[in-house]
C-alpha cells in the first residue's frame, strides 16, 4: 500500500496526539455530525432500505464466491469493446504497468480522478519518481495534494481542514503547481471553489492522459462506472486521449441490473443524496467519442488473500461510502491519519490489516482501534459486520504474539474457567482479598483510567447458593 504511510506509529500513539488537537477535533465533529444527520434523513425516505441493503450484500457475496468467472467475463467484454486489460498482482506491478503506459504516450503529466486504489499503491509517488507529474482534480484531493498532506477520510479526504486552512494552502501552493490563487482570495466556499476551478481548467484542457479508478465494473458488458459530485471526473474521463483505470478486483458486479441497487444505496450512504450529480459510464473505446485508448489495470494487492478468509472476506463487499466513519466515535476523536492507511475508520481497521498483513505495529494495532459499539454495522449499506471481523483479527494478532500480555491473560483465564475447582478457589480468594484490590489493573491503566472496576461482592454466588438452598 501507499508509501506515504510507511513509518507511521501504532494507532494508540498516533491517536493520542490527534486527540490533543482541538482544531482537528472540532473540524471532525462538525463534519461527521452534519454528514451522518443528512444520511439518516436520506435513508429514511426509502421504505425498502433494509431490502436494498440485503440485496447489496447478496450481490457482493455471490460475486465474491464466483469472482474468477466474473473477472474473466469482464476481461473478455472490455477487450471486445476495444480496451486492453492488465493484471497486477501487487502495488509494484500496478505502478510499473501504469508508468510504462504513460511513458508510451510520450507525456510527462496526467490528470487524476479521485481513486483510493491508486492511493493504496502509491501511484503518485511512483509516477513522480519516473518524472511524471500526477495532478489530483477532485477538490478535496487537490487540497490534500497542495498541502503536502495525507487524506483522512474516504469520501472527504480533506475533512480535517477548515476553510481558513484551505485558503492559506491555496494562496501558498497553487502557484507552484500551475495557475496561482486569485489575489485577495477569501475563505468563502464560492471563492475557494472558483479558485480551484480556474486552477484545474488549464490542466483539463491540456491533459493527454488521465488516470482513474472505478466504483463498479459490470462483467456482462465491460462497463466501468464512476460516481462523483463535482464534474472533475467527467472532464478526466472524456477529454484526454488515453485513459488508464486502476481498479480493485472486488469492484466487479455481474450484471447491469445489479448496478441499480448500488446506484440507490451508495449516494444516500455517502453524500446523503438521492442520486449523485455525475454518474459516468464507459465501455471500451468509441471512435470520435472520448479517449482513443483505454487500459484497465485489475489490482489484487492482497485481495485474493483476503478472499480466502471466511470471516474477513466480507470487508471486500465495501463500496467506499464512508458511512461507517461518520458514526464512529473513535474516528471522530482520532481522525483519519491515526490509522496509518489510505483506508481510515472502521472499514480501514479491518481492510488494511488484511491487505497489508498484521506484522507491523500500526497494522497489528488497527483491529483494536474500536470500541465495538456496532454503529458501523448498523449504517453499512452492504451489511459488513465490522465488529465481528475486528474480533476475528484481534484473535489473529494475539495468535501471532502481537499482544503478549493479553494472550497470557486469556490463557490464564481459560485455565481457571475450564476447571470448576479452580474457579471456586479463585472466587473465594477474590472475595477474601476484596479490600486489597487495586483501582487500576497493572498493564491496563489506559483502560481503567476512565472506567471503574466492578466491586467484588462479599460472598460469591456459589457460596450464597450453597448456604441458602433448601
Spatial gap, N to C terminus: 66 Å
Query: Which structural class do the helices and strands define?
Result: alpha/beta
Tally of strands: 10
Read across the widest sheet, the strand sequence of neighbours is 1-10-7-4-2-3
Topology:
Blueprint lengths: L10 H9 L2 H23 L4 H17 L1 H14 L3 E5 L2 H15 L3 E4 L3 H6 L1 H7 L3 E4 L2 H8 L16 H15 L11 H18 L2 E4 L3 E3 L4 E6 L3 H7 L3 E7 L3 E2 L2 H15 L7 E6 L9 E7 L3 H5 L15 H5 L1 H6 L10 H12 L4 H5 L9 H5 L6 H14 L4 H14 L2 H13 L12 H4 L12 H8 L2
Parallel strand pairs: 1-10, 2-3, 2-4, 4-7, 5-8, 7-10
Antiparallel strand pairs: 5-6, 6-9
If you had to describe this structure to a student in words, what would you say it looks like?
The protein contains 23 helices and 10 strands. Among the domains are: 256 residues, Rossmann fold (3-Layer(aba) Sandwich); 65 residues, no CATH class. The chain is α/β, with parallel strands linked by helices. Helices cover 52% and strands 10% of the residues. The chain is globular. It starts with 10 loop residues before the first helix and ends with a helix. The strands form 2 sheets. The protein has a 6-stranded parallel β-sheet with strand order 1-10-7-4-2-3, with helices on both faces. Strands 8-5-6-9 form a 4-stranded mixed β-sheet, sandwiched between helices. A hairpin with a 4-residue loop joins strand 5 and strand 6. The longest helix is centred in the N-terminal third of the chain and has 23 residues.
